[in-house]
Write a structure and sequence with these properties.
By secondary structure, the chain is an all-beta fold. It is 0% helix and 46% strand. The chain is globular and about 45 Å long.
């Protein structure tokens, strides 16, 4: 969510291709640059060239992009909501 604090592992910049038929949990969360803008989303990568950007916020629909258009900063390992006074 907007304003959350995050812990990013900058050594993990490769988003693996995961077969849609493979058993798994939720898609991993990554920080990335998209057209110069820093963003954080779950990334699903069903094949080599395509990525699906997923938001935990149901108000935002999935977005489709090409992996070469994203600059992966790293994998998000932890996030927490901050107190807003």
């Amino acid at each position: 969510w907007d304003g959350d604090m995050v812990l990013i592992d900058r050594s993990k910049t490769d988003v693996p291709v995961r077969s849609p038929s493979a058993k798994r949990g939720r898609s991993p969360v990554y920080a990335f640059l998209d057209d110069g803008q820093a963003r954080i989303k779950r990334i699903e990568r069903p094949d080599e060239g395509q990525v699906i950007l997923l938001s935990d916020n149901p108000e935002y629909p999935p977005e489709f992009a090409k992996i070469e258009n994203l600059s992966i900063i790293g994998k998000v390992l932890w996030w927490g909501h901050t107190n807003k006074d």
